[in-house]
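Ticket #4471: structure export looks truncated?
Reporter: QA, pipeline team
Priority: medium

Steps to reproduce: submit the single chain below to the structure queue and open the exported record.
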Amino acid sequence: MRIETDSLGPKPVPAAAYYGVQTVRALENFPISGRRFAPPILRALGLIKWAAATSNLTLKQLDARRGRAIRQAAEDLLANRRGLQDQIVVDVYQAGAGTSLNMNVNEVLANRANERLGGRRGAYRPVHPNDHVNMAQSTNDVIPAAIRLSALMTLPDLLAALDQLTAALGRKASAFDAIVKSGRTHLQDAVPVRLGQEFGGYAHVIAKQRRRLAAARDGLLELNLGATAAGTGLNAHPRYRATVAKVLARRTRLPVRPADDLFEVTQSLGDIVAVSSALRGLALELTKIANDLRLLSSGPRTGLAEITLPAVQPGSSIMPGKVNPVMAELLNQVCFQVIGCDTTVAYAAQAGQLELNVMMPVVAHNLIFSTTILTNALRVFTTKCVAGITADARRCRDYADHSVGLATALNPSLGYGQAAALVKEAVATGRSIREIMEQRGLMNDPRIAHLLDDPFALTGPKRSRTRKGRA
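Actual output as written to the record:
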């Protein structure tokens, strides 16, 4: 062990640790979940510390020896040299604002910088975690910026996964476009639709949610770096806020910029809430689609069985040959978790007071966790489920032919009342609408016969009806 001292007094610190006394206090105070912050957040913090040192060097606030050592230490953190990312050990549930996280990073970088300069860990000479690593910064601008930057760096993978899912659904929409089936509303027979139309609807839903998420992402580009403790910029060079944003933009190739109002971005988590809310909206739509696929594939003998999902693993430890819709079930569970994460973000966002929202650590954890698990789930759902879906065209057509929803097409010819009577008799006798109409001699009308002979013609407006590729 080594002894380090902070404003509260001396404390033993593991001799080999790159972290220091304030991190040790956080470990003692907050043994809550055992969960540490995700790599995207650590990468964002490493970039911010690197950019801060670069800016303070440019503005001649840091001497070259210290500034370069801090930059090199930040590069070590980004590359996880010497396992520095494993030295960010504080729990995700900790004191408000994220001071413990910020100081954990500051101590690790200070000790690594001093080590590079020939010093020893824990001495904090010539590089001090507060005076030099944290120069022109506060937890109150570093952590909001880290949340924004980490989300900006992780969202492209999610957007790409959404593009892949949209494309896969679109391909199924084309492949299934000629397959007529019974539509269902309220889980009851409805008018005929095409299976391709259902899948086309899914594709458009995902594409729309993707656009909403991309629009919400743009709000994260405003950074409050340089706001320091309360938005006033106290102890930061007047040009620091513009310089650090420019340095980060150049390094990350993200069009980040100084916030129009440092107080607004320090006080409010509204931009982050917008992204979390977009993730929630996406999760709700994905849940519906996953549920639909589970219903459409139910069976194989006693369910709808209009489609078959790829078999990726045995479905039961007791029932031989059973195959379950596991990828859709996986996506459901991930979506439920994302909705819960958004609820946490929402409660945390409204819990700020006056100049600062102090609930940022739990916001950081939940936002990046949601983005990560959604990205991973969508990748496997697309490749292991959607891409391999097949359709039973004969079963779909049989449902369409026997659906009482066909009676809706007879309204213009027979009237609503007579069509309803046909439905009532069909339900009571188990016969099809066509069989009853043949018995009554109604099929002699060629207009009516055509409707029942060709349900495909009922699946779109007259001006756009097509039989192209019809099965």
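Status: closed, not a bug. The export was complete when the record was re-opened. Leaving a note from the reviewer for reference: The chain has 17 helices and eight strands.
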